[in-house]
Design brief:
This protein is α/β, with parallel strands linked by helices and 239 residues long. The chain has 6 helices and 10 strands.
């Protein structure tokens, strides 16, 4: 059985708890000439080099597909696809998606997140900053921040957003306690930006779609509680 869970977590190739082989970051695959195995390709060093894996069709394994793989394959193979005939014969084998694994909010790479919560110097204290991951959790979002947040040891460098950190392109970016320096905003290409800041003249407001002039440490607990309530009510409505 072949399983393709859409989980973009970054973890080393290994044997998982079900004793199935794990191949992370698959970018392409094909059958071998004798159909005895499947050949998977995994790009490394930003697609500079490819590593191939041959897996017997009799073995169980988990393949984690890279983001945008189908879009990339369509562009790469566009000239190769010519539809001449649709055979009526049954396929020799079938591959079934048996499970879809939703990534944990704290395992999501912020450069892959649809929603990102970011924080900066305006949070003031670590005890208030702990509300940022909590907001991200209820939104199933990634979270990060400015270089100041990293310097204060509130975040690891892998969550730094900006010129010396990561570039992000989420659907929604929630900027909390962030002034909006170019070193930070250089790395943001978001469709919508919601900003929370006590300074009504903060530069971040000039590029924000929704501007909230408020103290984050007072607003965040209320916001988190409200989102939780809406989610619970939504689940009840589905039932």
């Amino acid at each position: 059985m072949v399983v393709f869970p859409f989980d973009y977590r970054f973890s080393p190739d290994s044997v998982n708890k079900n004793e199935s082989y794990l191949i992370n970051g698959i970018t392409d695959w094909e059958s071998s000439e004798d159909s005895s195995c499947l050949v998977f390709k995994k790009s490394i060093l930003n697609k500079i080099n490819d590593t191939s894996y041959r897996i017997s069709t009799n073995e169980n394994f988990v393949g984690i597909i890279s983001k945008n793989i189908f879009k990339d394959m369509l562009i790469k193979r566009k000239a190769d696809y010519v539809l001449n005939d649709i055979p009526e014969a049954e396929p020799e084998c079938e591959y079934t998606v048996s499970e879809t694994i939703a990534p944990s909010f704290d395992k999501i790479d912020i450069s892959e997140s649809e929603i990102v919560v970011g924080a900066g110097r305006g949070i003031e204290k670590k005890e208030y900053f702990d509300l940022i991951p909590e907001l991200a959790r209820v939104l199933n979002a990634g979270y990060g921040g400015t270089r100041v947040a990293v310097d204060f040891k509130w975040l690891g460098h892998e969550r730094q957003i900006g010129r010396t950190g990561k570039n992000i392109k989420p659907y929604l970016y929630i900027a909390i306690g962030i002034s909006g320096s170019t070193h930070h905003t250089f790395g943001i290409k978001s469709k919508y930006i919601l900003s929370i800041n006590t300074d009504k003249n903060a530069p971040i407001f000039s590029m924000s779609d929704i501007k909230v002039c408020s103290d984050a440490k007072t607003l965040l607990p209320v916001l988190i509680k409200k989102i939780k309530t809406v989610k619970v009510e939504g689940e009840k409505h589905k039932l």
